[in-house]
Amino acid sequence: MNPQLTLLLEIQDLRAQARELRSESQAGRMEQEHFELDLDEAMAQLEEKATELEEELEARVRRRFRRVASSVDRAVVPVLKGVCYGCLTAIPTATAGEESPNETLQSCENCGRFLYILP
């Protein structure tokens, strides 16, 4: 898999974990108090790590990722059966049918999200 794509997936996962922590329910707050967890510190650490990984991206990829991620929660989505799972639009057969499709960064022509092809 392309190293830039791997970084993008890691960044997206870290940001998703931070969002999940932000939306903790009251039960989560009780658990936090019981186990003496500091959600604010955990969120800050997740964001810090995501920012560190973002800096490892190539400049053009980082700019594009930030632009796409500013408008949608998931900037990197899978392609299953030739369909982008970000916008549910069929992608060109040539894109999905490449021999090693995840070795290059690809994006959906419709929504602009980064794509990774699942077998």
Outline:
With 119 residues, this protein is α+β, with helices and mostly antiparallel strands.
Number of domains: 1
Strand order of the largest sheet: 2-1-4-3
CATH architecture: Orthogonal Bundle
Oligomer: single chain
Share of helix, binned: 40-55%
Q: What is the percentage of strand-forming residues?
A: 5-15%
What is the fold's blueprint, element by element?
Layout: H1 3-22, H2 26-35, H3 39-56, H4 59-69, E1 76-80, E2 83-84, H5 93-96, E3 106-107, E4 114-117
Parallel strand pairs: 1-4
Antiparallel strand pairs: 1-2, 3-4
Helix pairs in contact: 1-3
Features:
4-stranded mixed sheet; Helix Hairpins; 119 residues; single chain; elongated; 5 helices; alpha+beta
Structure description:
The chain has 119 residues and is α+β, with helices and mostly antiparallel strands. It is 53% helix and 11% strand. Strands 2-1-4-3 form a 4-stranded mixed sheet.
